[in-house]
Specification:
Layout: H1 42-55, E1 59-60, E2 72-75, E3 84-91, E4 97-106, E5 109-118, E6 121-128, E7 137-144, E8 147-156, E9 159-164, E10 179-185, E11 194-201, E12 206-215, E13 218-227, E14 237-242, E15 248-255, E16 262-270, E17 273-276, E18 285-286, E19 303-306, E20 324-332, E21 342-351, E22 356-359, E23 368-373, E24 382-389, E25 403-412, E26 427-431, E27 435-440, H2 444-449, H3 454-460, E28 461-463
Antiparallel strand pairs: 1-3, 2-3, 3-4, 4-5, 6-7, 7-8, 8-9, 10-11, 11-12, 12-13, 14-15, 15-16, 16-17, 16-18, 19-20, 20-21, 21-22, 22-28, 23-24, 24-25, 25-27, 26-27
Bound molecules: calcium ion (4 copies).
Protein name: FG-GAP repeat protein
Organism: Intestinibacter bartlettii
């Protein structure tokens, strides 16, 4: 039987706790690892020392989107072929101030320019040429108490000019939209960047997703989509992904207020309009936020749906994430209106506690349940998971009709086992830094019937990170 098909090599990391502003321009992002540079890189150390000297009593700070920018960055803002040094800082006072300094070296001289505004945190910072004039604008999203605001600056002739600031900021905070987030990307692949600015109104529980451009030093809102029933701002996650081989889209995870779940939306751009792909589709809900990712490495971003019955939570832990669960991964079918739907891609069991995942073979999808065996003499350094096969449509709930398929044994490396019998029991299929994973107690008859073998299973198990 050739039912088994390896869907793809799994090598992606699930980012569970934080949303990040990933985009395809990340390769152009400035190098910003000053704090982690080895000390023998004298040139970088000199820059770092100089930045600290200029900052004086201000502290150098890391913006919250630290995946993209650092405390100290080297970036060519004014397109003269030479990098400027830009560092972010905070001055603590009765009224806190945050901002940045641009440091430019010319010949033997160097000059610096400072920009600050009142605020407590830099929630987002980046450098992008938003208006295609060759110079990179400096984008800041600053939080002050319960309000976030957007600032866009330009560095020109040694000076920092405010294009969009708190003072002329009527675009997004009208009608008490007090929180704001930003995604910058060329979403429609026309070689100019879009600014996607989402803002949030606590009283109305409403989020606006705004497609914007910077033109003639002003922000224009080109199109807006409204999403209601959004529970809070902090749990909103928006990332850029692929809805087709070439076409990009925005993948939204929005916390809902009526059922405390996370609703998935996909938005793409067509003729400068934001299109809500699943407008006519029933809500795609999850109990937890799971980051969107391309799980089968075909270039198309996949949409997670958690199998509710598979959720295994640690009742002693205060963590909101389960210890393990099964996720169905899907993709958008690319159709519009009522024809818009999800296409199933695969199902993966994740064990976050023990850092492994299991891509469920196609012929086992919907027929497998995985339970930790706590009856035998397991310990923190030795664990057994039973994999059951079940023809039922609710394999976790229907325990009567399940058959043992095999067991997965996890033995912690370097831990001496007194009984000397359980370590590396069965066939080793996977190793991580911490554990050796092996398979035993195979139901040979069922195993053969389902076309499984140890070698096949080796391809389906992998380490999460
Ligand atoms: Ca420059
Ligand atoms: Ca520009
Ligand atoms: Ca574009
Ligand atoms: Ca994919």
């Amino acid at each position: 039987m050739r039912l088994l098909k390896l869907v793809g090599v799994l090598s992606l990391v699930v980012i569970l706790s934080t949303g990040c502003y990933k985009n395809d321009n990340s390769s152009e992002n400035p190098i910003n690892l000053f704090d982690e540079l080895p000390i023998y890189n004298q040139e970088k150390k000199d820059i770092s020392d100089k930045a600290k000297r200029i900052a004086g009593s201000a502290n150098l700070i890391l913006p919250y989107n630290s995946i993209e920018v650092g405390k100290i960055n080297e970036v060519d803002l004014n397109n003269d072929g030479k990098n400027e040094v830009v560092f972010f800082e905070k001055r603590e006072n009765i009224n806190n101030e945050v901002g940045f300094t641009v440091l430019e070296s010319k010949d033997d001289e160097s000059k610096d320019a400072l920009y600050t505004e009142s605020g407590d945190k830099i929630k987002y910072a980046n450098f992008y040429d938003l208006d295609n004039d060759g110079n990179k604008e400096i984008i800041l999203v600053v939080e002050e108490k319960n309000e976030t605001t957007l600032t866009i600056c330009r560095y020109e002739n040694g000076e920092i000019k405010e294009l969009v600031s708190k003072n002329n900021y009527d675009y997004f905070n009208q009608d008490k939209f007090l929180k704001l987030g930003i995604v910058v990307d060329d979403i429609d692949n026309d070689d100019s960047l879009e600014l996607i600015i989402y803002n949030y109104n606590y009283a109305k529980k409403e989020m606006n997703l705004n497609l914007c451009e910077l033109k003639d030093d002003k922000i224009n809102i080109i199109d807006t989509l409204k999403f209601d029933d959004v529970k809070n701002f902090d749990d909103i996650n928006i990332s850029v992904g692929k809805i087709g081989k070439k076409d990009k889209g925005l993948f939204l995870s929005l916390p809902t207020s009526k059922n405390s779940k996370f609703n998935t939306e996909v938005v793409y751009l067509e003729n400068n309009k934001l299109i809500d792909a699943f407008k006519d589709h029933k809500d795609i809900l999850n109990d937890y936020y799971i980051a969107f990712e391309d799980v089968n490495n075909d270039g198309i971003t996949n949409i997670p749906i958690i199998d509710i019955e598979s959720i295994n939570k640690d009742s002693l832990s205060t963590s909101t994430m389960p210890k393990s669960l099964i996720i169905s991964w899907n993709k958008y079918n690319g159709k519009e209106g009522k024809d818009a739907d999800l296409l199933f891609v695969n199902k993966i069991y994740y064990n976050y506690e023990l850092n492994f995942k299991f891509l469920i073979p196609n012929n086992l999808v919907g027929k497998i349940s995985i339970n930790e065996n706590t009856d035998q003499n397991t310990s923190s350094s030795y664990k057994i998971f039973n994999f059951y096969y079940n023809e039922s449509s609710t394999p976790y709930l229907d325990k009567k009709n399940r058959q043992q398929l095999f067991s997965l044994n996890l033995a912690e490396k370097g831990v001496v086992d007194d009984s000397k019998t359980i370590n590396n029991k069965g066939d080793i299929i996977l190793e991580s830094d911490k554990y050796v994973y092996s398979i035993s107690d195979i139901n040979e008859k069922l195993f053969n019937k389902l076309g499984l073998s140890i070698d096949i299973l080796k391809d389906y198990f992998s380490i999460i990170k």
